[in-house]
Amino acid sequence: DGGITQSPKYLFRKEGQNVTLSCEQNLNHDAMYWYRQDPGQGLRLIYYSQIVNDFQKGDIAEGYSVSREKKESFPLTVTSAQKNPTAFYLCASSSPTSQETQYFGPGTRLLVL
Amino acid sequence: AQKITQTQPGMFVQEKEAVTLDCTYDTSDPSYGLFWYKQPSSGEMIFLIYQGSYDQQNATEGRYSLNFQKARKSANLVISASQLGDSAMYFCAMTDDGAGSYQLTFGKGTKLSVIP
Q: Which residue ranges in chain B fall short of pLDDT 50?
C-alpha cells in the first residue's frame, strides 16, 4: 500500500536530549513537510523540502533540524534548543502533479519527561 | 500574510442532517487554494476537498461540498447526510503558489459532534 509512515507513534524526551522523528513515503512525492500541532490549535509549519538535498525553514523552525538525503525520507530532529517540544508532529507530502494537496502521515506524539 | 478564521469551536448535528462549517480567509495573493481536512481522534489529517481560487464551480466530493464565495472570502464546508463517523475536528487551510512552496496555513479547527 502506498502511503506515509511515521515512527514512533509516541516518543519521550529527557531534558537536554535530541530526538529524531522518522517520516517515510512511498508515493513518489517530491515535496515533504513537517508540522507541529499544539492542543486546541491548528498546524504550524516547521520545515519543508521540495527536492532532495534541499529544505527551507517554516514559521517555527527554531530548535528543529531536518535532512533530505533520499526522496522517500524526511527525518525531523528536535534538539535540546527547543524548550517546549511537547506536541503532536505531523509529516506530509505532495505530488509533483498536484502540489497543492498535501497528504499526511499518522503523526508522532512527543512528550518531555 | 495569509490567515484562516474558523469561528465555531464546536458544532452539534443530528445524524442524517446536513451541517455547515464556517471558514473565512484573508490573503493578498490572487492565486490560492483552499482545503478542508478532517482529524479524527486518532490524529491523522485526512484530506477532504480542494477549491482553487480561479475555479468557477464549487468543489464537491461525495457528501462534502465547499461553498466558495470569493467576494466574501469564505470557504464553508457543507456535509450532507451526517454520519456518526463524521464526528471529528475539521480544519480549513489555504495555500498560495506565490513562493512556489505551497505552504499550508491552517485555522484552529471546529469540533463536530454527530448525535444519534
A: none
